[in-house]
Amino acid sequence: MSNTENNTKEGIIYTGVPSKAELAAAPGVPSEERMCQGRVACIECVQGIPCNPCEGACKFGAITIGDEITNLPHIDEEKCTGCGMCVAACPGLAITIVNKAFNQKEATVDFPFEYIPLPEVGDEVDAVSRMGEVLCKGRILSVKKPKSYAGTAVVSMAIPQEFADEVRNMKRLPR
Ligand code: SF4
Ligand code: SF4
């Protein structure tokens, strides 16, 4: 194996999380401009697996996969209202709702969370990266449990603006 190949062992098949290049190419990831306008789905789905519940979960027609079920989901960032219904519908836990316009200092990230105990509104928690590294503190804004998707809560968390591109979940709480 060449040095180049050794140095490129990043990305979803090697680490389990998408690389920056994969995210940049993903049709489900909205533009920076859109994220700065308010809540929008950020669909970090990059593997072309046979899967499509996200498409049916969106009542606004903002997610398109199309006839070929292995197509990557495409987000229509103008149609997306940031409602969050797609978050718990994704078995791959690949969808978050990002809002870089929450206030001057904070962004928000809504993410799927499948651990017990759940956080409570107002809790200060450890906010983590895609790799699970603790990056900063987060403040819990809401915890929703969609009836149709038992076992997957959708947690909304405020974080410092500068971490909005990296934070995608929170550290599991002690039982
Ligand atoms: S957040 Fe709501 S409107 Fe946006 S893609 Fe998901 S389900 Fe559709
Ligand atoms: S439901 Fe999730 S894993 Fe499946 S295609 Fe949609 S974003 Fe990808």
What does this structure look like?
This protein is of the alpha+beta class. The chain has one domain (11-170). It has 5 helices and 9 strands, in the order ααααβαββββββββ. Strands 1-4-5-8-7-6-9 form a 7-stranded antiparallel beta sheet, with no helix packed on it. Strands 2-3 form a two-stranded antiparallel ribbon. A hairpin with a 6-residue loop joins strand 4 and strand 5 (106-113). The N and C termini lie far apart (45 Å). Residues 1-6 have low confidence and may be disordered.
Average pLDDT taken over every residue: 93
Q: Label the overall shape.
A: globular
Number of helices: 5
- Topology, number of strands: 9
Largest sheet: spatial strand order: 1-4-5-8-7-6-9
- Give helix and strand order, one letter per element, not per position: HHHHEHEEEEEEEE
Task: List low-pLDDT spans.
Answer: 1-6
Cα distance spanning the termini:
45 Å
Give the oligomer, counting copies of the same chain as homo and different chains as hetero.
single chain
Range of strand content: 25-35%
What structural class should be given to the helix and strand makeup?
alpha+beta
Number of domains: 1
Rg over alpha carbons = 16 Å
- Hetero compounds: iron/sulfur cluster
- Residue share in helices? 10-25%
